[in-house]
């Protein structure tokens, strides 16, 4: 009898452990943290290039923040750790551009079509306003009225020209922020969101939440400041997320907006800074940026033949051709890759651990954590695992009991 019971336990116990280890997110063996480690020798893996001026000098009594940690496993898949041009096998070479890093993505699926040094840390310049805009559309209603302060109106320009004490809706200010890159509007939003420090905390919390691990906002407007950091990959994540927000997509896709009259200041038109809007076929909108340290940065998307492609370029130069012309060539290249059905080189994801999976809808409040029940599975995966374990234990008990009775009958 003893040997029969032992043989049964040797079969059942490994079965139970196998189920636990392959289904439980808690007990499963942790993934390797070194297999896809970033390639050594990549430029700007930890920090952007050194500044050329004193714009990032910390304020008296303060120290520059330490560099953000570099994840052992790169967001977006193993090829996102590569330093140079990342293209599908057997694909044609991408066009020559001046940008130090860039990324092309399918704006619907999040597939990374091609890239160059996608996780190199750069300065965003005004592209960080896309992250600020995400905080705005999350926390403020479009019709909400905001009255700028004198400090808001006196920010270092580029500026839309807000009037201190005037009354503007969030929707109007959002157009000024994204179409004309108003630093005065960025500061107005920061004041409304609880102050600059509170707003930066919200921007960085959102960046962390959606998996932008290279990103730290150090100013709401994108003006260079100590600790400012992002990457072409991160800004692709932010733009993908943002274009799912109707208020954001509407603002970046608006070519002309009538700014309201305020006090003695008459109404005037605001034109979109993005020169591809209305010129590049199917252009959806985007954002431009520049500072002396960041150089030229750009994000934009377009639709063609049922496909939507977006490009991010960082640390580029306007010569020999304009940044928007370089971006349009990359968009053409992206559409050509889509048409050829080239294998993606990576995947835009919102959370770590979801590489290769469909991007969760940012408007869906359900969590991607498999250990938490969803509306479709209210019992939860953990509940099912525990039920399965109990069932296996019961089966084991019945089997052992049966073997004991059988052995007792044989003894008698």
Biggest beta sheet attributes: 7 strands, antiparallel
Helix content: 25-40%
Annotation, overall tally of beta strands? 11
- What number is the mean pLDDT? 83
**Structural class of the helix and strand makeup?**
alpha+beta
Termini gap: 13 Å
Residue share in β-strands: 5-15%
- Based on CA atoms alone, the radius of gyration comes out at 27 Å
General form: globular
Order of helices and strands: HEEEHEHEHHHHHEEEEEHEH
Question: How many alpha or pi helices?
Answer: 10
Uncertain ranges: 1-40, 352-382
Q: What is this structure, in a nutshell?
A:
The chain is α+β, with helices and mostly antiparallel strands and 412 residues long.
Which descriptors would you attach to this protein?
412 residues, alpha+beta, 10 helices, globular
Note down, in words, how this protein is organized.
It is a single chain. Strand 8 and strand 9 form a beta hairpin. The chain starts with a helix and ends with a helix. The longest helix is centred in the last third of the chain and has 31 residues, at 381-411. Residues 1-40 and 352-382 have low confidence and may be disordered. Helix 1 packs antiparallel against helix 10 (381-411), helix 2 (129-139) runs parallel beside helix 7 (232-242) and helix 4 packs antiparallel against helix 5 (183-192). The protein has helices at 2-23, 129-139, 150-153, 170-179, 183-192, 196-209, 232-242, 246-252, 323-339, 381-411, and strands at 85-86, 101-106, 111-116, 145-146, 168-169, 256-259, 268-271, 283-291, 295-304, 307-316, 346-347. It has ten helices and eleven strands. With 412 residues, it is of the alpha+beta class. 33% of the residues lie in helices and 14% in strands. The strands form three sheets. Strands 1, 2, 3, 8, 9, 10 and 11 form a seven-stranded antiparallel sheet that branches. It has a two-stranded antiparallel ribbon with strand order 4-5. Strands 6-7 form a two-stranded antiparallel sheet.
